Amino acid sequence: MNLLKLVVIGVYGIIGLIGWYKYYEELAARPMGAATVNKFSPEMTVTYIPAMVRYHSIGKLQVLRSILLTDNLEDQEQVKTRITNILKHCTSVHIRDFNLLDTPIKNIGNWYQDNFDFDNFLAAVFDEVFNSKLSVEEKIRNIFDVMETYQNATTQKLLIEMNKLTGNQY
Q1: How many other C-beta atoms are found inside a 10 Å radius of the C-beta of residue 5?
Q2: Nearest alpha carbon to residue 118 among 164, 142, 74, 83
Q3: Cα–Cα distances in Å, from 11 out to 14, 20, 24, 48?
Q4: pLDDT band at residue 34, thresholds of 50, 70 and 90?
Q5: Mutual orientation of helices 118-129 and 42-70 as an angle, nearest 10°?
Q6: 34, 53, 75, 91: which has the fewest C-beta neighbours closer than 10 Å?
Q7: What residues contact 112, with CB distance under 8 A and at least 6 apart?
Q8: How far is CA 40 from its chain centroid?
Q9: 137-154: b or e for each residue (b if 16 or more CB lie within 10 Å)?
Q10: Residues 6+ apart with CB under 8 A from 39
């Protein structure tokens, strides 16, 4: 019985080593270059990009809630600077990630940034932040609505661009 266990463990070990060798062999055969993530179809692109933008928005809302709860909203310039910097930083992170994707639109992160109306979006966010008639939760809910509006507009532009590139209707 013990000999059988040792043989089975030995066979599993050999199979494991062969598997790692094959993996390393395939990895070494790939050309070195800029890292890209799997090739995205047009359909996957128009689904994935908006979904990830919305996912990242949840984190931005949490940071905005923290600012609304802890910062002195009377110091509007300081609050505007903080919000602008946070939104730009968070956005730049996923734009760089998007640029690694192999999509029908090259550097889709840059494309998304160029087509997102950030200045008017930011002005709309500030309107909500400095509305003294609203509670923090009402402001967050309204900012979420603002985010959705601008993201939906950019998604529509993405669909139009993808239609132009592929000739399909998305």
Answers
A1: 9
A2: 83
A3: 5, 14, 20, 42
A4: low
A5: 30
A6: 34
A7: 49, 53, 95, 98, 154, 158
A8: 15
A9: eebbebbbebbeebbeeb
A10: 102, 103
